[in-house]
Amino acid sequence: MKELSIFIDESGDFGEIKERPAYYLVTFVFHNQVDDITSQVFKLEESVRVSGFNLEYIHTGPLIRREKVFAKYSIDERRKLLYKMLNFVNSCPISCLTISVDRKEAVDKITLSGKLAKLIYASIMKYQKFFIDFDKIIVYYDNGQSELSTILNAVFSIQFSNVEFRKAEPQKYRLLQVADFVCSMELLKIKRNEKRLSNSEKAFFYKPQELKKTFLKSVEKKNIRNTATG
């Protein structure tokens, strides 16, 4: 039986827009279960442990901004940790897709929900040949936002009779952490293009063109359009 796992993370929320410009992003990470990633996970976790980090969740945004559990680490330590995640992403046989909605085009929950549903549906249809090749599809999401959970259940259930939804904690699934990483990078790409990276983001990616040529380029290589035929 061919099984596809889909790991999902989001950036933004359905509430009132507090800052402009603002975007809502949803990232999907696709993993064919035939492709074993046990060795990649082991290498990542061993590398993190040997380097002296006591972490079960590499949360990209707080890592870059030096927030929460990452506040005690220096910029060099945090950069080293993010590179470990980047190497893990590069080594895994996965593909990804991110959709984004400009909140100036969706100022309320109803409009945002409608746009997200249409975009997710359109993406599924575009890569339908990729999806129908699987006997079973399992969607992993932490149910962090009930509105998105409702949209995902509706769109995937309409399109597939072989889909199953599982609430998942990022601490237990490295590919959920990959979805978080990719989603964060896609948001950074938008902010970079709009020349509004924060001071903490500029300080973290201090090497010229590092963000674009190292991180964003790696994420682009994993895009589903480069790995699947529509």
Instruction: Flag low-confidence runs.
Output: none
Order of strands, main sheet, comes to 3-2-1-4-5
How much of the polypeptide forms β-strand, as a percent range? Answer: 15-25%
> What's the helical proportion of residues?
40-55%
Number of strands: 5
Query: What's the end-to-end separation, in Å?
Result: 22 Å
Please compute the radius of gyration using only Cα atoms. Answer: 17 Å
Count of helical regions: 9
- Give the SSE order as H and E letters: EEHHHEHHEHEHHH
Structural class: alpha/beta
Globally, the shape reads globular
The average pLDDT is 95
Instruction: Please outline the major beta sheet.
Output: 5 strands, mixed
Please sum up the structure shown.
The chain has 230 residues and is of the alpha/beta class.
How would you describe the overall organization of this protein?
This protein is α/β, with parallel strands linked by helices and 230 residues long. The chain is 48% helix and 17% strand. It is built from 9 helices and 5 strands. The protein has a 5-stranded mixed sheet. β4, α6 (146-159) and β5 form a beta-alpha-beta unit. The longest helix has 20 residues, at 174-193. The mean pLDDT is 95.
